Amino acid sequence: MKINIIKQRSLWWTISGSIILCGLIAMAISWTRPDISAPLRPSLDFVGGTRLQLELDCTIPNNCNQPIKVAAVREIISKEGFPNSKIQVVGEEKEAIDIRTKTLDVDTRTQLITALSTEFGKFDPGSTQIDTVGPTLGRQIFTSGLSALLVAFLGITIYLTFRFQFDYAVFAFVALFHDILVTVGIFSILGLVAGVEVDSLFLVALLTIIGFSVNDTVVIYDRVREVIKRYPGKPIDQIVDDAVNQTLTRSINTTVTTLLPLVGILIFGGETLKYLALALIIGFVAGSYSSIFIASTLLAWWRERIGEFIPNPLEENSQLIEGQKDTV
Fold first, then answer.
1. Calpha distance 59→127 (Å, rounded)
2. According to DSSP H, which parts of the chain are helical?
3. Which residues pair with 96 in a beta bridge?
4. Domains of the chain by range and CATH?
C-alpha cells in the first residue's frame, strides 16, 4: 500500500509542531522553577554533589553474609530525602556501594551512613571514601558536549552539501534539529512530572541520535536523486512520494531492530542505563519520523515553491534536433 506523504504533509508538520511546542513550554517552566533553573533537570554531573563509597567490614562475623541490593539501598536513601541519587553496588560479593547524591553536610552524611549501617551492617571506616564534586566540572562537561553537538551538526551539513545539494543539507539539518528538540522536550516534561534528571550520558545519546537520524535521511535523499535521474521531468511531489515508499520498509525494519535491544536495556538495564536507553528510543523514533515525514516533505515543498523542476533530457534533445533541421 502506497502512503501519500506529500498530500498529508500538514498533518505531519502539525504533529511535530505540537510535540515540540509542549517541550518548549516544559523547558520554559523548568527554567523558572528555583529547584531546577535550567531547561532540563540537571543531575550531579552538571550541578555537583557528594559521592560516598561504603564497604562492609567483613572482618566482623556474619557482617557480609548477604549481598547488598540496589533496591533496598534506594528505599533507604529515598526515605532520607534523596530519591534521585545514583546507586551502584560494587565488589565481587556485592559488599560495597557507590552513592552519588546532592551535596551533603557532615550531619546529614552521618545520618545517612547510620541508616544504611542499620540495614546492611557495619561499614569499614578505612574503606569509606567521601568526595565532593563541584559545579565547575559540570560546566566543563556541558560545554564539551555542546561543542560536540555543534561540530556534528556542522560536519553533517558540509557532507550533505557536497554529497547532494545545499537545500538537501538544510532540510536534513532541520530534521536533525527536530529530533534533538523532541528528545530534549520530552525529557524536560519527564523532569517536571517524574523528576527525571539528565547526566553526561544524555549528551552521548543526543550524538548517537544525530548519527542514526542522518543515516535514514541520506538513504531517502539518495533514492530521491535516483528517481529524479530515472524519471526526468516527473513532478517533485511524485518523486518524493515514490522515493519514500521505496525506502519505507527498510526504514521501519532498521528502526524496529534497533529499538528491540534498547527496550531490553530499558527494562532490565538498571538505573544507570535506563534513561540512556529511553533517550535513544525517543530519539530513534523521532529520527525515523523526521526522515520520512519532515525532511522529505520539506524538500518537496521547497522545490515546488521555487519552481525548480528537473528538465527532461529527451525533450531537450528533440528540441535541439528540430533546431538543427530548421537551420539546414
1. 13
2. 9-32, 44-47, 70-79, 106-120, 135-163, 166-194, 200-230, 236-268, 270-289, 296-306, 313-327
3. 55, 90
4. 9-37+136-314 (1.20.1640.10), 49-133 (3.30.70.3400)
pTM of the entire predicted model: 0.74
CA atoms lying within 13 Å on the CB side of residue 255: 23
The helix or strand, by DSSP H or E, that contains position 88, with its residue range, turns out to be strand 86-90
pLDDT in tens, 105-164: 888 888 888 888 888 888 888 887 887 766 655 667 677 777 887 888 788 778 878 877
**φ, ψ of residue 231 in degrees (nearest 5):** -125, 70
Q: Which residues contact 98 (CB under 8 A, 6 or more apart)?
A: 51, 52, 53, 87, 88, 89, 90
In angstroms, rounded to a whole number, what is the distance separating the alpha carbons of residues 278 and 259? 10
Asked whether the beta carbons of 189 and 29 are under 8 A apart, the reply is no
Q: Using an 8 Å Cβ cutoff, are 30 and 41 in contact? A: yes
pLDDT tens per residue, range 275-311? 899 999 999 999 999 999 999 999 888 888 876 544 4
* C-alpha grid cell, residue 293: 515525514
